[in-house]
Amino acid sequence: MVNVKVKIGMFLLLISAIIYCSTLIAASIYSLVLVEGNIGWNSQYGIFGTSFREIGTIPLSISIILIISGLIFITFSIKRK
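-> structure tokens emitted (81 positions)
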């Protein structure tokens, strides 16, 4: 029988993966807008890096927090057994 904390940890890992993947998809779509819309980008980061920095800061932080908390839930559940 799977512990409730393991289920919570797996759910948090799944949600963080969904947030991270949607951030990458949004950044790639926005990079097309940067190229076609003549908006411009930072040459130091490139087209995708600029779009990822503009879109991905907050969702990336949320994803990292969810990954860490999910791993903590799973680790403590395994240690208790």
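The chain has a mean pLDDT of 88.
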